[in-house]
Amino acid sequence: MAPYRTLSAAISTKLADDETDTVVFKLAPGTYTGTISRDKNTANQSFEIHGSGSLNTVIRGSTSWDATTSHVLYFRDFNSITIKDVKIINGAYGIYTRSVAIVKIEDCEFANLGSSGGNHGFERTQTQMAADWATQGSVGSNRSDGGVMRIRTSVDVVIRNCSAVLTLRGFRLQDCNQGRIIGCSVRSSLESAFYLAASDYTGGTGCSNFFISDCRAEDVFHNGYLIVGQYNRRVSRL
């Protein structure tokens, strides 16, 4: 199994500010531990991360749940990103992108992101849930500020055949121009499972031209599907 630091070093080198080649990182089966963050000066490059299947390739922000762990994968200012065939666990957001024109995420699993997975039962009182939230991000807490993913200001987004369990938030997309979420599921999320979000609540921002199809939200404390702002969105169960 290749050590995760090799991938981190490769990303730092191959995705440096002056690099413009399209790069594909192919991960051998194994568990890779640590967070990765890359913010380019300008969007001049595309890359892909291919795992060996979500049962065989695990990327985890820390060895066990830790509310102080940052986003497992954070990328900003790229032309396009593809992430497929991995399982992502133990962090704030599993995937967080900003100002990436094209984002594709396929055949991935997500767990324990924004939440340890503890205290998700519907027998919990409002007071108990509020107490968990009040400690978010601190050592020993069951909560951090995160979830499955947060995709911000993209032109085109495709999320296909992904599943999530025991997370704080589900699939959150914000101010994106168009996209599709197909064949995905969220189970035991404390906030919205599928959320087309806006940077403000004026109606002038949000996600447009989106199609959510054949997706499932189960045992979600907040909304199964939440849409704020903009136009031309469709949610369909096939």
Which features would summarize this protein structure in a list?
single chain; 238 residues; mainly beta; 13-stranded parallel beta sheet; seven-stranded parallel beta sheet; 2 helices; 20 strands; disordered N terminus
What would you say this structure looks like, in words?
By secondary structure, the protein is mostly beta strands. It is 8% helix and 44% strand. The chain contains 2 helices and 20 strands. The strands form 2 sheets. Strands 1, 3, 4, 6, 8, 10, 11, 13, 14, 16, 17, 19 and 20 form a 13-stranded parallel sheet that branches. A 7-stranded parallel sheet has the order 2-5-7-9-12-15-18, with no helix packed on it. The protein is globular. Mean pLDDT is 93; it is low at 1-5.
Helix and strand layout, with pairings?
Elements: H1 4-14, E1 23-26, E2 30-33, E3 36-39, E4 46-50, E5 57-60, E6 73-84, E7 87-91, E8 93-106, E9 109-113, H2 126-134, E10 147-152, E11 156-160, E12 163-167, E13 171-174, E14 178-182, E15 185-189, E16 194-197, E17 210-213, E18 216-218, E19 225-227, E20 233-236
Parallel strand pairs: 1-4, 2-5, 3-6, 4-6, 5-7, 6-8, 7-9, 8-10, 8-11, 9-12, 10-13, 11-14, 12-15, 13-16, 14-17, 15-18, 16-19, 17-20
Strand content: 35-45%
Measured on Cα atoms, how large is the radius of gyration?
A: 17 Å
Note poorly predicted spans. Answer: 1-5
Apparent shape: globular
What's the number of helices? 2
Helix content: under 10%
β-strand number: 20
Class from secondary-structure proportions: mainly beta
Largest sheet: 13 strands, parallel
End-to-end separation: 40 Å
* H and E string: HEEEEEEEEEHEEEEEEEEEEE
Mean pLDDT: 93
